[in-house]
Specification:
heterodimer; A: 132 residues; alpha+beta; OB fold (Dihydrolipoamide Acetyltransferase, E2P); six-stranded antiparallel sheet; three-stranded antiparallel sheet; 4 helices; 23% helix; globular; B: 488 residues; alpha/beta; Aspartate Aminotransferase, domain 2; seven-stranded mixed sheet; 37% helix
Chain lengths: 132, 488
């Protein structure tokens, strides 16, 4: 499992890359491994507004449908349309394929996100719990 | 065995399975009778085969099925028990199978009596006061039950109850039914014992909640020991308790939802009461209620006056009709035959044996497969493939490998709160020998995961087709056959 060093993370397994007031959001490698082969991605519309913690997308794998939550508050500026035709890209490289770009209204929210090492601890803990 | 061509692919122009004599009555011009605009101009694209071709084709396909009549079918949460053939004989009796739903009450007293008696039996088994047999299957029963809950609150001018609480371990149908009934679903978490987290429930239970849906035993195969406290928390704030009867096979004659505090239940006759399902349906999902909810039951309700049975439509508070006529009658006949042939002691014995069988499997496999909840289970046990996952072998691989041993795999990846879940429900019908053979197959696969993981990952090998690409099938589904010329 890969955890990229230059990203921030949520406890619901989204990764976040901040560029000014723009925020790229994707699914982590841990998430794609546990979901298995992803067959369908449902993304919001450009212009939709979400608060931090809101569900903004759904991914469906051969196992189950899972919700994706917005790490920050803001407006959807762009969606990755390539994923709609080829959801397998998320399995191929979780970090190269973002889901949406959000224009943030409260940039300070990203301070609350997890660092790569904190996220690694979380994943280790979850794996341990599953085997307990 | 090899792949069988589609019947379209064995079609030969002009070949047919019938021969008709020359027409000896005056011919009518169809366009005069039906109207030219409604008539097709090109012939339908049907396969052209002989009668023998058609018979062989479908006979061959019928042998490719795996049903409980052909082998062990431990599909968790589905109660794939044996369906005694006597039930089919009874349901096929002319007096039942040749009735017409538009016949008048005088000529259908026997059928009405059967439905009335079956309702009473189901009410007794579940501890409810009245039962409607109308819903066509489980999820439909859920919807009917939730509509009854909504009608009850609305009738008391209590319109603020817009939410239904569902546990995170629930069947997917629960939140779906809640949404279809117009409620917002909120989730209550499970605690470390795999039961409803009482503190979490207290936090989210308020006067906007119409009710709680619960399966008991729950989908982890565990009995919710705190059910009385759960009922109190929900009732105290004016909510109602809904019992999802998916797992009733564990508690018949031992515990009753009505005594646990549930106000509404649905049952799956096609699971617990031994009528065919899983492609062989149809199902039947009766809904039972406590007396105070009886006015809201779907119409018609079967009533008895002196020795006569009637269909009562005069129920002003009813949620209305939810199914054509009175539900799936043939299924009711089979369930009735089953209950009568088992008797009260027999049904209790069913549940005891179902629970014993599940615990036997858990006990015999827990040293090689991870058992997430280490306590006695009810009629099904949830194992996890997390140990095998570390060796690169997933639960899906284990399920596929089981096909090589001639078994229908258990339910996999459900409940969602168990990683790499394998949910095994053996039912009461299986012998010790069958259980031991299955256990041996599961142990063999666990050994293979260690010594020869590629073997498991490449399975199945003995089936007509090998591992199918499920992701491709979901991403680019081929929904119907097309002629080559249509594929361009």
């Amino acid at each position: 499992m890969i955890i990229a060093d230059d990203l921030k993370y949520t406890k619901t397994h989204e990764w976040v890359k901040v560029e000014g007031t723009k925020c790229y959001v994707g699914l982590t490698d841990y998430a794609q491994i546990h979901l298995g082969q992803i067959v369908f991605v449902d993304l919001p519309e450009v212009g939709d507004e979400f608060s931090a913690g809101d569900q903004f997308a759904e991914v469906e794998s051969v196992k189950a449908v899972s919700e994706v939550y917005s790490p920050v508050t803001g407006t959807i500026e762009e969606i990755n349309e390539e994923l709609l035709d080829n959801p397998a890209l998320l399995n191929e490289d979780a970090y190269a394929n973002w889901l949406v770009i959000i224009e943030m209204t409260e940039a300070a929210e990203t301070d609350r996100l997890m660092s790569p090492s904190e996220y690694r601890d979380l994943c280790d803990k979850l794996d341990e719990e599953a085997a307990h | 065995m090899k792949e069988t061509p589609l019947i379209f692919e064995i079609s030969k122009p002009g070949r047919k399975g019938y021969s008709l004599p020359e027409c000896d009555v005056p011919k009518q011009d169809l366009s005069q009778i039906i109207g030219k605009d409604l008539l097709r101009t090109t012939p339908p694209n049907l396969p052209e085969v002989s009668e023998l071709d058609a018979v062989r084709h479908y006979t061959k396909l019928s042998t490719r099925n795996h049903g409980v009549d052909s082998g062990f079918y431990p599909l968790g949460s589905c109660t794939m028990k044996y369906n005694p053939k006597m039930n089919e004989v009874v349901a096929g009796l002319d007096g039942f199978s040749k009735l017409h739903p538009y016949q008048n009450e005088n000529s259908t007293q026997g059928a009405l009596e059967l439905m009335y008696s079956l309702s009473e039996m189901l009410a007794e088994i579940t501890g409810m006061d009245q039962v409607s047999l109308q819903p066509s299957a489980g999820a439909h029963g859920e919807l009917a039950g939730l509509m009854i809950i909504k009608a009850y609150h609305n009738n008391r001018n209590d319109f603020k109850r817009t939410k239904i609480i569902v546990p995170d371990s629930a069947h997917g149908t629960n939140p779906a039914s809640s949404a279809v009934a117009g409620f917002q679903t909120i989730e209550v978490k499970s605690d470390a014992n795999g039961e409803v987290d009482i503190e979490c429930l207290k936090e989210i239970m308020n006067e906007e909640v119409a009710g709680l849906m619960l399966t008991n035993p729950n989908t982890l195969g565990l009995f919710e020991k705190n059910i009385l406290e759960i009922a109190e928390i929900v009732h105290e704030k004016g909510g109602l308790l809904y019992y999802d009867g998916a797992n009733l096979n564990a508690v018949m004659g031992i515990a009753r939802p009505g005594d646990m505090g549930f106000d509404v239940v649905h049952l799956n006759l096609h699971k617990t009461f031994s009528t065919p399902h899983g492609g062989g349906g149809p199902g039947s999902g009766p809904v039972g209620v406590k007396e105070f909810l009886a006015p809201f039951l779907p119409v018609p309700v079967i009533t008895k006056k002196d020795q006569d049975y009637h269909l009562d439509y005069d129920r002003p508070l009813s949620i209305g009709k939810i199914k054509a006529f009175y539900g799936n009658f043939g299924v009711m006949v089979k369930a009735y035959a089953y209950i009568l042939s088992m008797g009260a002691e027999g049904l209790k014995n069913v549940s005891e044996t179902a629970v014993l069988n599940a615990n036997y499997i858990a006990a015999k496999l827990k040293d090689v497969y991870h058992l997430p909840y280490k306590r006695l289970c009810m009629h099904e046990c949830v194992l996890s493939g997390v140990r095998q996952m570390k060796l690169g072998v997933s639960t899906l691989d284990i399920a596929k490998r089981l096909l090589d041993f001639g078994y229908h795999p258990p339910t996999v990846y459900f409940p969602l709160i168990v990683s790499e879940a394998l949910m095994v429900e053996p039912t009461e019908c299986e012998s010790l020998e069958t259980l031991d053979e299955f256990i041996e197959a599961m142990r063999t696969i666990a050994r293979e995961a260690e010594t020869d993981p590629e073997m498991v990952k490449g399975a199945p090998y003995t089936t007509v087709v090998s591992r199918l690409d499920e992701a491709l099938a979901a991403r680019k589904p081929v929904l119907r056959w097309k002629k080559d010329s249509e594929n361009d």
